Amino acid sequence: MANETAGEKDIKNMHWSEIIAKKIYDEKEPPYVVMAGITPSGPVHPGTLCEFLFAYAISRQLSKYGNVHYVFVSDDMDALDAVPEPLKEYAKTIGEDMGMPLAYARDPKGCHESFAGHFIAETQELMKVFGVELEFVRASKLYAQGRYDKFAREMCERKDEIKEIVRVSSLRETMPDDWFPIMPICKKCMNVDKNAVLEYKDGNYKYKCSKCGSVDWDKIENHRYKLLFRLDWPTRQKFMHVVTEGGSVDHHTKGGTLSTVAAVHREFYNEEPPYYYKFGFLKYKGKKYSKSKGIGHTVNELVELLPVEIIKYILLKPDVQEDKELVIDKETLFPILEDYKRASLVGKVQDVGTDTTKRADRKRAIAFELCNARVVWKADIADMILYYNIYGDWNKVGELVGDMAGVEYLRNYINVWISRSLVPDRYMFRVDMKKSENALVRAYVQKMDEKLSAEDLHNLVFDVAKENGVDAKDVFKQLYLAIIGKEMGPRLGKLIYAIGIEKVKGAIA
Ligand SMILES: [Zn+2]
Ligand SMILES: [Zn+2]
Fold this sequence. Notes:
Elements: H1 6-13, H2 16-27, E1 32-38, H3 46-62, E2 68-74, H4 91-97, H5 115-129, E3 135-138, H6 139-144, H7 149-157, H8 159-169, E4 182-184, E5 196-201, E6 204-208, E7 215-219, E8 225-227, H9 229-239, E9 242-248, H10 257-268, E10 275-279, E11 282-284, E12 287-288, H11 299-305, H12 308-316, E13 324-325, H13 333-346, H14 356-370, H15 381-391, H16 394-401, H17 404-419, H18 439-447, H19 454-468, H20 472-484, H21 492-499, H22 501-508
Parallel strand pairs: 1-2, 1-9, 2-3, 9-10, 11-13
Antiparallel strand pairs: 4-8, 5-6, 6-7, 11-12
Helix pairs in contact: 2-3, 7-8, 8-10, 9-10, 13-14, 15-16, 15-21, 16-17, 18-19, 19-20, 19-21
Bound molecules: zinc ion (2 copies).
One zinc ion binds next to loops.
């Protein structure tokens, strides 16, 4: 590491959001328009969180360099093309509207003005819960305002040119004969999927609807069309002056969507494309999150299991390009909590040189800062659970651990963890004391003294083991059996101290 240049050292010390912001600062001019987006084709899922949180992190870092505007676009002009898994019971209604833009299809539940409207409301609610502020824009509004018209017309007029750009950038040998830059929306049935343009002249076009078969004329200025996905994306970036946008790994492949998007900027609009960052997949025990296959947590589950700032932390800490494991179970829960707590204690470490431990801590601190974290517990969570198992009263737990705010912050979550068996076995027990005839227990009890501290009570086990020529773990085992009826448990000294020395003494000897 001694030969690192200053630049390399800086990059290695930076959190990914800082690196991306720095690159944008080096290449682009303010105001910095950061864009992200999703298609409102079904219920929110953890991937939705990634979409708006990654761009949020970058916009926060970019604001250190200049004015930032964070815009989130909902692609509600995309065609309804599937019945989402959780909406199977509405399959009939959804089936009837299949092929229509999501902004025009009906809300299957009937509570919003459209299919898109229903899921946009869910997304916006989630953004509020996660404390992310941004300008929310619907693609349908951008079309209705005519923002695309000039560009759509230009693409229709230079059709052969744009077609060749798409062909080359998407690594295709040939393109379909009926390929056209726009997809008309049928005036009669509002279908958009697979509609064909038959003729085009000066902004007027003749189309055939693939759903109802109607053939009619329409014009671009009526805004009843949509650009093909690979043309829509760069065009929107152009008229909204976007400096950066992210895409999952699959958009970044050679010949993938972003190859075309960048080519359209360079070869059709004669400008440099925005800076495209890549993000990895969300994984659950090595498998890609999938709603339809039921792999991974749902968003509702996540917010029940952990405070939102910890969920943000898990998603924002690792490098954005890496695939991320988002698993909350008995093995991962406590390590996640410990890591987060550590981040809360690091503070702002600015220059950390080449010390890798400090580098990791610095990145923790940046991720923590991006979470806008509020209260963090001071006491040990294992102690909170220990006292709760003994007294079953959170106020008493708060008093005993000397951290009312921390207990207040975590108590509802701890209840959920206990009810879902997410707490490691060693922390879970029920006090169930019984007289013991065991010689080791008797030897221990004889040495117990009202004045001992929790630590003394713990160390006493080792004295007893030594005097009796046995392993300390045998003494622990016999004591746990006498106090909680199982072979292992929380730290013994703390356990006895919490129950009360005299009480234990009286009950087991
Ligand atoms: Zn609704
Ligand atoms: Zn039609």
